[in-house]
Design goal:
The chain is mainly α. About 55% of the residues lie in helices and about 5% in strands. The structure holds tryptophan and iron/sulfur cluster. Tryptophan (TRP) binds next to strand 1 and helix 8.
Length: about 325
């Protein structure tokens, strides 16, 4: 029987601060499942972080080990997946430069993420050459490992389309097929918002951290918005518009049947509903928080994992760069 070769996945997270539940819901929980089936490369995208945080780069360094220890505590398995830091594999910047030649400026200026970020991150000066090239570096990340699929949210689809265009242009220009056109692996992400009902994001200060401590977890959940129409305890509630209910759907799916009924019939108050959610989240977070503390104390263990990851990543990346140089006759 022919043994089928595992397909390759690459994904990355930018180390720009502490990770939060949004990272779990939107990325890490999916990575966990993917590592069962695919050959996975999970990358700390520190060069990408630098593109927006270049004025305060020390926070990137602080975030790298913190983030990786969260990945490990939440179940990303270094025995199955390659965990590495982008800047430790110099081939990323090499390929980025080579690909840059093939990318007309118009493609980048038209990229919806570029336009959006410029208006969203007003406090940061990201009207720069580097930030414009963000999706080109991302393409290099993906192509170096010949990833077949890239797990992405809707917002990153234009970057993947650009990556595919780059592949076609490379193959056409150099008459040699080095790369694989990566497919997006659209992750269906349940609705999950921050404490104030906006997208969970560090810049909105509305996050629950992946290693949030019990006291602040409690304070934060108690501050959450619920159904705005429910002014008094005996008013009927509307779970479909309640942020707290979305959290139940994700972290206690078993409650999905009885809770909405109790809420609509005003048999459950928002305070008790939040108290119960605090317990559920604390039970979810606490074991990982403890594991993370242990991991952070074992500096050698972390260093070894990243060394090993770097070695494995470079093995693949350097081979690809060799092929690229042959194609370019350089
Ligand atoms: N741009 C991604 C984000 O903001 C991070 C990232 C960098 C990435 N390189 C990547 C994601 C390669 C997937 C593949 O989340
Ligand atoms: Fe939301 Fe729970 Fe209050 Fe219903 S009882 S409105 S689900 S917090």
């Amino acid at each position: 029987m022919k043994l089928e070769k595992k397909k390759t996945i690459l994904s990355g997270i930018r180390p720009t601060g502490k990770l939060h539940l949004g990272h779990w819901v939107g990325a890490l929980s999916n990575w966990m499942k993917l590592q069962e089936e695919y050959k996975c490369f999970f990358m700390v995208a520190d060069w990408h972080a630098l593109m927006s945080e270049y004025k305060n780069p020390s926070m990137i360094k602080d975030s790298v080990l913190d983030n990786v220890s969260d990945w490990l505590a939440y179940g990303i398995d270094p025995k199955r997946s390659v965990i590495f830091i982008q800047s430790e594999v110099p081939e990323h910047l090499e390929l980025y430069m080579i690909l840059s030649n093939l990318v007309p400026l118009g493609w980048l200026f038209r990229c919806p993420t570029f336009k959006e970020q410029l208006t969203q991150l007003k406090d940061k000066d990201i009207n720069t050459h580097a930030f414009l090239g963000y999706p080109v570096l991302q393409s290099a990340d993906i192509l170096l490992y010949k990833a077949n699929s890239v797990p992405v949210g809707e917002d990153q689809l234009p970057h993947l389309e650009l990556c595919r265009e780059i592949v076609r242009r490379f193959h056409f220009t150099y008459k040699s097929k080095v790369f694989i056109e990566p497919q997006p692996l659209l992750t269906s992400v349940p609705r999950f918002l921050g404490l104030d009902g906006r997208k969970m994001s560090k810049s909105y200060n509305n996050c629950i951290g992946l290693s949030e401590d019990s006291a602040s977890l409690k304070r934060k959940v108690l501050s959450m918005f619920t159904d705005p129409a429910r002014k008094r305890r005996d008013d009927p509630g509307h779970p479909d518009v309640c942020n707290v209910f979305d959290y139940y759907s994700i972290f206690a799916p078993g409650k999905k049947t009885e809770l909405p009924k109790e809420c609509r019939e005003a048999k459950r108050g928002c305070k008790e509903c939040k108290d119960e959610l605090i317990k559920i989240l604390e039970e979810f977070i606490a074991p990982k928080r403890e594991e993370k503390t242990k991991i952070l104390k074992k500096k050698d263990y972390l260093r070894d994992i990243l060394e090993e990851g770097k070695k494995k990543a470079r093995e693949v990346a350097s081979k690809t760069i060799d092929e690229v140089k042959v194609a370019l006759k350089i």
